[in-house]
# Entry
Amino acid sequence: MSDWLIQRFSDFGERSFLAFGDETTPYRTLHDQVEAYIGELTQAGVQNGEVVTLIGDYSLNGIAALLAIFRIKAIAAPVATGAASEADSRSREAQAQWQLEVGEAFRLTRLEPPQERHAYLEQLREKRKAGLILFSSGSTGRPKAMIHDADRLLEPFRKKRARKHRILIFLLFDHIGGLNTLFNALATGALMVVPHSRDADVVAKAIEQHKVNLLPASPTFLNLLLISGAPRQYDLSSLRFITYGTEPMPESLLHRIKEALPNVSLLQTFGTSETGISQTVSRASDSTLIKFEGSESEYKIVEGELWIRSKNQVLGYLNHAMDRFTEDGWFRTGDLVEEAEDGFIKIIGRREDLINVGGEKVTPSEVESVLLEISEVIDCLVYGEENAITGQNVAAKIVAGKDQDLKQLKRAIKKHCRAKLSAYKVPARISFIDQTTFSARFKKTRGEQA
# Structure
């Protein structure tokens, strides 16, 4: 499976593959480290089909360990270092036989073997296929353990040609979007730039220092980048592309980003942990409309919800029922969409985030986009709160610009919303906060905020 990829590392030779601070590492070193880890795993007794919980991050050791696990046809369950406290529970959910931590040292621990193995794990072992286990965020309950055929996930990257581009690695080591960026970069011989943290100033400094061409991020982080003033303080002229996904992009925020970075192409991506990353195209940099292309996945819209069926989708869950999949393989994404002409669609929100005001449905992203049209509003979070009469009301938390008269701003917000939105969509309660809340994956957190 990964033989072809590991061979490319040798072919790329002294081309730089990883930049962290002032240090860069060549592809030849990555090749040698993968081979060394293959030896260590084999010598320790890790076998085909066994599950290895991998605690690591985007580093020489973390990436080499992931690929070494694939190479010996074992199953990797990556856990980002920031979530290392969850490693034991995730090992249990993944039915892991081993736990590997790769920081400065290589620490491999044999775990108590599971009493019985899931059929999906046995299926990969019997077919001598490498595996990948990813976990849902767990924000709505017990994290789901999803198992992929890693051979199949990697295969589309075999067709990629070498390119000299520089990518900032932003999404996490155990996130389908982050791994997709990793596999694409490795297959094409890109330089991956790893910032010391996901702080907006740190990311901007890394872009300037290493002349990054491509930044994958979320709308929430891109707004934080604007709020920080980084586009004015750092030279970001090397940026050619920003890809964004993981949550809906408010149109007014997209326009703010385009205004701050006029020479950058903004491209929306779409993917789920269950179905992988789909091939999409954006109508334009200032448009939130996208179209699905390619033969790897297909889609349909059922009662306003996007359903995906992909060649790269999971074998299944190890610890959860397959109730979001239909019998014929369609995955109910939970994403609500609007259809436009020519096959383009617009993702408007998550079904679980809908606000029900007396039977009328409101998507938070629509209201947030209207709020962000107001120059004095630099960030916002819209959510539903309970109401005895209508069931729910629309509520908004606002991050205001400096030195604002908040009473006057609240009146201006109400007036602007009444002019742009139906009455039931206008926030019934507005409060002011210092900053909005977001997850480790830089997605806004909603739910009961009051």
Observations:
- The chain is about 30% helix and 30% strand.
- The mean pLDDT is 92.
- The longest strand covers residues 377-387.
- The first helix runs from residue 3 to 12.
